What we know:
Elements: E1 5-16, E2 20-24, E3 30-50, E4 55-59, H1 69-81, E5 86-92, H2 103-118, H3 125-135, H4 139-144, E6 148-152, E7 156-159, E8 166-171, H5 178-182, H6 201-207, H7 219-225, H8 227-240, E9 244-245, E10 252-255, H9 267-271, E11 280-285
Parallel strand pairs: 4-5
Antiparallel strand pairs: 1-3, 2-3, 3-5, 3-6, 6-7, 8-10, 8-11, 9-10
Amino acid sequence: MALLALHDLPAPAKLNLFLHILGRRADGYHLLQSPFVLIDWCDTLHLERRADGQLQRHDLGPPLPADDLCLRAARLLQAESGSTWGADIHILKRVPSGAGMGGGSSDAATTLLGLNQLWGLHWPRERLLPLGARLGADVPFFIGGHNAFVEGIGERLQPITLPVQWYAVLKPAASLPTAQIFAHPGLTRDTEPVIVEGSLDDAQRMLAWSSGWGRNDLQPPAEDRCPEVAQAARWLEDLFGNSRMTGSGSAVFARAGMDEVPTVMTPAEMSAQKLAPGWEARMCRSLAQHPLVGWAG
Length: 297
């Protein structure tokens, strides 16, 4: 029996444990190396099949841009597959925009994975990944389904196994346009590459993050453009003894323990912190894999 709807589909955010910029291609895209880890701060999507071929998005939380990545993902899959089905896409947005946590990219990936099932396409992951790359550099990671060491412009993924860990995540009210950060004259673009070979055993020991190895090359330009990033980093440093910006947005995170309950501060205590208007704080747990990892072959 054909599916009519899919409800409560998660779209998890990610953190960049480090983010090194190695260079820039002739087309302007930057080459990077970064371990991406999924966390349990998620948006939620509900998909309903339409027989008229129309694609409509309905915002259940904060309003999104009129033509967001979810609609673009749905149109792309519809065009590439030749499907005559449409969809109503309902989104409850929880992951803050402009945070560097990949919220929009994750929503697009969940849209592709969900419509792949709802429309009865059942395409393998290898067929969805190129569509994700056409939508944005982070989308293939979320389609991939696993924590990964990411290279190139985001299209080269090597799955990695990382220990489950708690992270305190702090998002200032300000958001950062990615283009401003990558265009900053002070951006480091020549970090030496990490050499990853074989089964990634050595890399996984390094990426376990027990020593806080590496850095985010985008953080100094971001702090220059947005003093709130530096303020958030200092706040977490004072509380947890470490902090780092994630991605190219304004969110900052800190390692907060690997036990069942995080050290220093519980999730409830983190959420109850008195912050400036528009700031968000959450204690997040890393995910071993994407909740929809089995939705593509």
